[in-house]
Amino acid sequence: MRENKLCNYVCTKKLDSKSTKKFKDKIDDEYHVNMILDNLPLVIPRKRADVNQPTSYEHGFRVGFKASYAGSVEERYFIHNHLAFTVKFHRDTETDTARIVGFEVMPNSVKHEYEQPWDPEKPRLTTCNANTKRYVSGADTPQEVEDGKEIIFTYDVIFEESPVKWASRWDTYLLMTDDQIHWFSIINSLMIVLFLSGMVAMIMMRTLYRDISKYNQLETQDEAQEETGWKLVHGDVFRPPTHSSLLCVYVGTGVQFFGMTLVTMIFAMLGFLSPSNRGGLMTAMVLLWVFMGLFAGYSSARLYKMFKGTEWKKNTLKTAFMFPGVVFCIFFVLNALIWGEKSSGAVPFGTMFALVFLWFGISVPLVFIGSYFGYKKPAIEDPVKTNKIPRQIPEQAWYMQPVFSVLIGGILPFGAVFIELFFILTSIWLNQFYYIFGFLFIVFVILLVTCAEITIVLCYFQLCSEDYHWWWRAYLTSGSSALYLFLYAIFYFFTKLEITKLVSGIFYFGYMTIISYAFFVLTGTIGFYACFWFVRKIYSSVKID
Rounded distance, CA 10 to CA 16, Å? Predict the structure, then answer.
């Protein structure tokens, strides 16, 4: 420690045709080598053209690069076989002890030459020798990757004192240099929210107030029919929908996902889930998901009892297994694929077993406990009585058709989050840190409000056109934003990522399917509960004869 070591020999590798092909494939696919020292990831510092801008960092270093010799157009492959490490440390002035606060590297490609005879125990390199003070530089001839070539691997270690204290060593990695675009994203989203809030306020304050006051003064049903349509469906608006059990399952799952997301973000904002704690974020999300099963069971059972369902145990089983089952199947297939590729990123069998145990051993029993208490409570009373015979729905205008209405409803929630989504996808797929949970929380709140408001607005228009099938429509209206998220993921794949291998492509789309499915459940549930509150509110405000 604190002793510089220059021109250290590691090993010699003679390339055969198989290893040459492997190296060339890795260089083509832009593979990075990642290392960790004292829990700090290895980075390459990148100085910016603007002097005032702070240094940015690239995670890991590339296996090699492609270039052509001067006067030639043919591209050749070169390998990074000499690494110049810089280990930054902060020295305690009182005790003279030091702690590591930075781990940087400058990779080089150099065709090493040596004095004969070759001795692997004491190699005498002429291209890199600490005794003669001959060090590797960018001017050296690079090491080409060719069948039969001999590659000598070497490294330097330089220790550098740093004023950065150990507690602040992650600050440089997490430094946010593009906060302006996040503020732009939030202002853009707030404009959407203000527009929708204005529409909701207009409906609630003006239209509904006028409607309700007139309804309460009217004497005959004929007069009411001349006014507007939403009171006409009061006898059908709380009629249970088709596939009501499935709706209960998805609403319960959405509550579980909402609870997990909210608590995770609060913990992340408070700094408990720092990237320095490896895997902390994912562990917290899985554990919170498991324990939020209690709320999933409770909310699902409450809704199921309101729909006069009798098979509450069957409904509970669906809640406990449907969403996690679909996600686990996709995850298992993806993991099997990358395990077959011998990737170090594959989840080991022990971890897989632990996930199954958490699901069956903790989550499922908690869903049952929540359902038991939810079903024991008295059913939610409807503010108006439901007629025995369903009312006929008049022919709807083209813009009020379910498919069109649902697809329009998803655009604004997606529009509120898509800029932040770009940074999240970049952090997941382009190996960058994402630690701006303050911004993310603001965007999450905006998403909640947008989903709630767009669903209320479209639900009101639907009821005014005397269409009382609002239960599923409310869920799908805001939930359709997940479709736009997946379409954006396809766009991102073809414009930002250079994935050529089939397994990597399946891996990307598999995980984006899981993320889109989770987003559908979350946004759909938010829209559903907002609409549920709105419909109960307006029908409890009018006198029904």
Answer: 19
- For residue 135, the surrounding DSSP H or E stretch is none
Judge whether 286 and 361 are in contact, CB under 8 Å: no
Q: Is the pTM of this model over 0.90?
A: no
Phi, psi of 221 (to 5 degrees): -65, -30
Within 410-469, residue ranges assigned H as helices are 411-429, 437-464
Give the pLDDT band of residue 178 (cuts 50, 70, 90): low
Long-range contacts of 229-234 (CB under 8 A, 24+ apart): 229/463, 229/464, 229/465, 229/466, 230/460, 230/463, 230/464, 230/466, 230/538, 231/542, 232/391, 232/466, 233/391, 233/463, 233/466, 233/467, 233/468, 234/384, 234/539, 234/542, 234/544
β-sheet with 150-161: strand ranges across? 5-14, 150-161, 82-91, 98-108, 43-46, 56-59
Instruction: Return the closest-CA partner of residue 19 out of 82, 79, 109, 83.
Output: 79
Task: Fill in the amino acid letter for 414.
Answer: F
Compute how many other C-beta atoms are within 10 angstroms of the C-beta atom of residue 224. 19
Give the lowest-confidence range in 222-236, 256-270, 470-484.
222-236
pLDDT of residue 197: 79
Residue-level pLDDT at 222: 52
3-state SS class at 309: coil
> Span 149-153, mean pLDDT?
89
155: nearest Cα among 297, 295, 7, 274: 7
Helix (H) or strand (E) holding 217: helix 208-217
C-beta neighbour count of 418 within 10 angstroms:
17
